[in-house]
């Protein structure tokens, strides 16, 4: 039964690869080269970010085939142009970048995420977000200036660069008009949730008609008092993490005449409710993100724009009853496959990660399929199914729609 979402083919390897069109190669002059031993999960892109060099330089210096798609743990790579003063060495653990001095400012580039910047500068996402007053860690934009943690300098917090797109700006930290919701995780307490969301335990308990001494349990959904916003999630809900959210309630479970399991349908409802309660980029901002991410990974951006429009209308809040999430309509298992391809955990609720998942899945499908139409159909039907059964009638229409949109959008 098709899931009508981005599906991984069962016979493609889940080995990390590096995009071949990430950044224009920099010219390197008199800087020393470093050596890096590949660890499980490493990608050329991640290694390059860690040392502050271009992925293209690493590919050429090591004569890597297929743009560095296949790198094996234990392999030693030469990293040309790495600055010995800041690259891993005697002053930092092998494979990690030494921290920049407190007060250093960095400018966000196209394709950057907070996780990329944190890895590049030897810090954490939470510390970087805190140092810059970011309430929503997903929304940063090219040209934005961020302060590295430890400076105590809040002058650049939330600072916008003239000419930047308002749709791509991060949340300002102003209270929401109404409260959102949060799902209890293992180990959570009312006190901990209240602390994380900047509210009092009494207010949280009152909003949910609880006593401050009541027990709460993983998967339970709590409403936040007016003025609070849901805490960011590190990954999307799936049947293994949704708990008893909406258990026993009627939730939408049918799509295109197919009915999905209770766990899948409730996970979709949880993801839908989460995205409804947080800020997401506008459709125009999502289009720009799709173009930038596609170019970074060497995939035809007109194809990805057409595919996302067909799937969701560039709507990051879209979640189908099959639990296909966001603008690229990727299901969690496919998100895990995409995570293996890029060498880091992708969060399908994060707009940048959602787009990246869709793009790298399509890139893998294009490499594996005999025909581009089979790759496009594989995004909808699953490539293994396409190989076994050919394109279903509705898949053929899906491919025709994508081809038409590529010429009109």
TrEMBL record:
It comes from the Bacteria. Residues 152-181, 221-244 are annotated as: Disordered. InterPro entries: LysM, LysM_dom_sf, Lysozyme-like_dom_sf, Transglycosylase_SLT_dom_1. Transmembrane segments: none annotated. Pfam families: LysM (PF01476), SLT (PF01464). Residues 34-79, 104-148, 180-224 form the LysM domain. PANTHER family: LYSM DOMAIN-CONTAINING GPI-ANCHORED PROTEIN 2, MEMBRANE-BOUND LYTIC MUREIN TRANSGLYCOSYLASE D. This is LysM domain-containing protein.
């Amino acid at each position: 039964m098709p899931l009508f979402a981005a599906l991984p083919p069962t016979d493609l390897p889940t080995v990390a690869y590096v995009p071949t069109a990430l950044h224009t190669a920099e010219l390197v002059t008199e800087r020393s080269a470093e050596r890096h031993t590949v660890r499980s999960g490493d990608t050329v892109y991640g290694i390059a970010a860690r040392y502050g060099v271009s992925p293209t330089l690493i590919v050429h210096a090591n004569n890597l085939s297929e743009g560095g798609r296949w790198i094996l743990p234990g392999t030693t790579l030469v990293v040309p142009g790495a600055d010995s003063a800041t690259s891993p060495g005697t002053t930092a653990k092998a494979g990690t970048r030494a921290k920049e001095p407190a007060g250093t400012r960095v400018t966000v580039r196209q394709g950057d995420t907070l996780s990329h910047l944190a890895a590049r500068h030897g810090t954490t996402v939470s510390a970087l977000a805190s140092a810059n007053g970011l309430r929503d860690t997903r929304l940063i934009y090219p040209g934005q200036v961020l302060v590295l943690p430890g400076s105590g300098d809040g002058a650049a917090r939330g600072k916008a660069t003239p000419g930047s797109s308002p749709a791509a700006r991060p949340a300002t930290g102003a209270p929401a008009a109404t409260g959102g919701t949060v799902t209890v995780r293992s180990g959570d307490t009312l006190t901990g949730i209240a602390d994380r969301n900047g509210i009092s335990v009494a207010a949280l308990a009152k909003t949910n008609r609880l006593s401050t001494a009541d027990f709460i349990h993983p998967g339970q959904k709590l409403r936040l008092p007016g003025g609070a916003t849901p805490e960011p999630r590190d990954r999307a809900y799936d049947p293994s993490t949704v708990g008893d959210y909406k258990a026993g309630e009627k939730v939408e479970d049918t799509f295109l005449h197919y009915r999905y399991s209770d766990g899948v349908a409730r996970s979709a409802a949880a993801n839908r409710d989460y995205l409804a309660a947080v800020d997401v980029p506008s459709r125009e901002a999502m289009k720009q993100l799709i173009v930038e991410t596609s170019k970074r990974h060497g995939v035809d951006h007109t194809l990805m724009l057409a595919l996302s429009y067909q799937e969701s209308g560039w709507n990051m809040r879209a979640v189908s009853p099959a639990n296909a999430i966001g603008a690229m309509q990727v299901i969690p298992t496919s998100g895990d496959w995409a995570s293996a391809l890029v060498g880091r955990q992708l969060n399908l609720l994060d707009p940048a990660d959602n787009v990246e998942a869709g793009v790298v899945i399509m890139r893998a499908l294009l490499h594996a399929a005999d025909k581009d139409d089979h790759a496009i159909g594989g995004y909808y039907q699953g490539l293994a199914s396409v190989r076994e059964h050919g394109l279903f009638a509705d898949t053929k229409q899906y491919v025709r729609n994508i081809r038409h949109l590529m010429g009109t959008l």
